[in-house]
Every structure is written in structure tokens, then in C-alpha cells.
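User: C-alpha cells for DUF4190 domain-containing protein, please.
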Amino acid sequence: MPQWAPDHPQATTVLLLGILGLALCQLLAPFAWIKGSRVKKEIDAAGGAYGGRSQVQIGYVLGIVGTALLGITVVGFFLYIVIVVIAVASSA
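Assistant: Done. Predicted C-alpha cells:
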């Protein structure tokens, strides 16, 4: 009978951070990206002692996407502020 390796203790955390970082609060996305990278390295270094790599990979990718969206949002916000300041300055 095959024996399955237990999931890494942080695998579910990375997945949840990735989902929440993409869906609710993009400020969590960089944490999913960073933690996911670290946990993937730990799983690979464990030589089969830990499972859950697919959960970590999904959380990691969601963290990257959420971080990109966060960056786009921040840049868009600053562009909006600059446009408003220029519009107010030119109308005065």
C-alpha cells in the first residue's frame, strides 16, 4: 500500500493567502508570493517528506497575479491623483 507524505504545515496558509490576496485584499498577495517561494523550496529540499506542493504552487501563482494587480492599482491611483491635480491647477 502506498504511503502519502503529509502536507507541509504552511501549504494551506500559502493557498489561503493567495486566494485572499487575489479576491479580497491585494495587500496579502505579496505575502503569498514570498511565503510560497520559501515553502516550495522547503518541500523540494525535504526529498518527499512533505506533500502539498500543488497547493503551494497555486497560492504562489495567485500571489504573483495579486501583486501585479496591486501594482497596477497603485500606479492607477497615482495617475488619477496627478490628473486631478493638473486639472485643478489648469482651471484656476
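User: Anything notable?

Assistant: The radius of gyration is 19 Å.
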